[in-house]
Amino acid sequence: MTVSNVRHNEMINKKRRPRLCACRCGEMTFEGEFCEGHDVRLYKAILSEVGGLIELRRLVEDKLG
Ligand SMILES: [Zn+2]
User: What is the pTM of this model?
Assistant: First the structure.
């Protein structure tokens, strides 16, 4: 196997490596950080948790100063 083949395989493995969905649903995803649609689900869950987009902005601004 050549060096460029190894690099190529590493790239594929990195992309294909299963990981836990970042929304903490416990499902595995093979593409990106989230299962399909779970990023939107997390976004909506966060919004409803803090009470809306304006509240979220206020929290972030408080946190970041
Ligand atoms: Zn998820």
Answer: 0.65
